[in-house]
Amino acid sequence: MKQLILLRHGQSEWNLENRFTGWTDVDLSNEGREEACEAAKKIKGAGLAPEFYFTSYLRRAIHTLQIVAAGLERDWVPVVKDWHLNERHYGALQGLNKTDTANKFGAEQVHEWRRGFDERPPLLTKDDPRWPGNDPRYSALTEDELPLSESLHDTIARVRCCWEERIVPALRCYDSVMVVAHGNSLRAMIMMLRHLTAEEIQTVELPTGSPLVIDLDERIGFVSERYL
What we know:
This protein is of the alpha/beta class and 228 residues long. It has helices at residues 13-16, 30-45, 59-71, 98-105, 107-115, 152-173, 183-194, 198-201; strands at 2-8, 52-55, 79-81, 176-181, 212-216, 222-227. It has a 6-stranded mixed beta sheet with strand order 3-2-4-1-5-6. The model has no long low-confidence stretch (mean pLDDT 95).
């Protein structure tokens, strides 16, 4: 039996402020750091010992992983950072307060932007300082890879690259792999593993800092899942 541990990062500063975050690189809040510490205790208490880590390019996920790895006393375990595991890009909504945005555009429209499968939020322009092409960590990406906004469908296609090319091969080599990432990139993995429909994935929500353990068979097929 293989085990995949999925962990959404702890509460971020912008989670606390109720702002759209996406690819904006904000750090953990104090509560988020505490959530990461508690996640480590739960994983250790369950007797789990991850043998390989994956995370995104964003510090709220990276710092969550660092705290958890230290709490597990498994700082030495190999880590792969992959931009494909970044949160969904929220385009021109990034940085805006969610309540204010709902008041301006209507709650139904904001719900579609947040939960619709194919709905993209308003696009950034390339002269916007928030465009990821201005960030040196994405300097190796082509313009086609740099999003101006993403739907959940777009995010799933992006995550699939990392899943098929890096995470699945790691699961074939190791019995326990942990991915510390973001709500939508982790939902993408759950959708692929459980073969969920576009309608079904819209109801899946991952709380911050709560480890989700997915049991897999030797062919990396879904068997069961549980929160610690």
